[in-house]
Amino acid sequence: MSFRIFSLLTLFLVCLLHGHSQLRAEKPNVIVIMADDLGYGDVSCYGATALKTPHIDQLAADGQRFTSGYCSASTCTPTRYSFLTGTYAFRGKRTGIAPPNAPAIIKPGTETVASLLKRAGYTTAVIGKWHLGLGGEAGPDWNGDLKPGPLEIGFDTCFLLPTTNDRVPQVYVKDHRVLNLDPADPLWVGNKKPSPDHPTGLTHRDTLKMDWSHGHNSTIHNGISRIGFYTGGHAARFRDEDLADKWVEKSVEFIEANKDQPFFLFFASHDIHVPRMPHERFQGKTSLGYRGDSIIQLDWCVGELMKTLDRLQLAENTLVVFCSDNGPVMDDGYKDGALEKVGDHRAAGPYSGGKYSVYEGGTRTPFITRWKGHIPPGVSDELVCTIDLPASLATLTGQKLPQDACRDSFNVLDALLGKADAAGRAHLVQQNNGNNGTYALRVGKWKLQRYDKQTARNIIVEQQLSNTKVPQYQLFDLEQDPAEKQNVIQAHPELAQRLKKQLADLIEQGSSRPGAVAPVEK
Ligand code: NG6
Ligand code: CA
């Protein structure tokens, strides 16, 4: 080959590679790590001192740590629904905490963060807890094809815990099937005792390795009784202790297989939801009991994912978002010592409330973005929410959203990327569970709470769950009173009126994203 041809070829290759890297720069890989029931104050970069979370802290040190980062609901199913669809869960049907045999809540054809990234050329996966239902109206066909599910709403592949691990069954779902299911031992799942002699947390309580405190007293698996009943599927069942390792193993496989093209991974950790049963190597590692040990396990998972990105030289080509699906809870149905061992640890940080509550502790959670070389390290006070990820990632990857899709998702990309002077949301509606008339509206420093049933749950998270009587409306000044202790509604009647109307409008209008319209009801 002549020197001239060689030079031209080299030049051509350099251009090609350069062009390729420029293209990649606009389509970084995206990993959303969603923790389960992790509170604002549960990790050391948000103030925890009872334990250390070095890997999550490192993410924060390398990226933006948000002080007003939210999930949209204070329970799992509605937050996951609105993170994926970009639409407030109270607009949807059956978006409250899903029971074991729930059908798929997000209908095929719905635009999701996964479908829009898939359209942009990404390979998409969800690995971990699903809890958004599987199957058609009749519910999941556990021994057949479990669809519709994630694969019908934009995910190329999935490896799931189908509901949440305090609910039956304890099996993995890979794409459309229960993994390792022996047809000779079919899996049955129901809400009635299948036979009079079926052992439960009530009849065999003394055999349990972790006792229940409320609910959670039906079928026993791995020495832990659950919500709901099941029989069969023995070869498919997993051990609670191995869940985190499995999520990491499957995620590393997925990242390795897709290292040369853009990928989206929704890493849906089950930590630190009940039953908290971390791997033996994490048990006893903190003074906080299994709740704290599960936080250490979650931190380990984050470390493993980041090591994988480093090993494959993907850290500068991957946007990582770390968030939680709702705020903290101590006793959520099992006697795991969380309440007794909490000491000075404040799981919701300076905030009141936690899981099930629209006080800040219910939805204001750790929220970190990291994209090495693209996001400057720092702390951001901008208001951002997991519901904004669809519109923001659509902007990042140049995708247009259909008018009736992602109806409450705001493009806050610049805030997520830590750009100077970038603004987050102007307002955010919070909810607790399903569509039950409990809402809050944050606008700037003001927070309006609305309770159509006039009861609020669990205002001090480090206490046993309780219901407290509250007025229908309360108003708080989050700047003066972040813990929402002083209801100042009497002192600001006009402001309260305005916020009540704004909240009612946001609920009734059917959409809040500029340009979006609610679909016509059929
Ligand atoms: C509640 C359960 C709780 C937990 C929650 C869902 C009882 C008494 N309580 O109904 O243990 O499973 O649902 O949590 O059964 S979530 O994080 O998935 O929303
Ligand atoms: Ca949760």
UniProtKB/TrEMBL annotation:
Note the SUPFAM superfamilies from the entry: Alkaline phosphatase-like (SSF53649)
State whether keyword Hydrolase applies.
yes
- Report which gene this protein is encoded by: atsA_35
Return the protein name: Arylsulfatase
EC number(s) of the enzyme? 3.1.6.1
Which Pfam families does the record match to this protein?
Sulfatase
Could you list the residue ranges that cross the membrane? none
EC category name: hydrolase
Q: Which UniProt keywords are present, listed alphabetically? A: Hydrolase
The organism encoding this protein is: Gimesia chilikensis
* Highest taxon listed in the record's lineage: Bacteria
Gene3D superfamilies membership? 3.30.1120.10, Alkaline Phosphatase, subunit A
Q: Sulfatase N-terminal domain: which residues?
A: 28-398
Q: Which GO MF terms does the UniProt record name?
A: arylsulfatase activity
Q: Which family does it belong to?
A: Belongs to the sulfatase family.
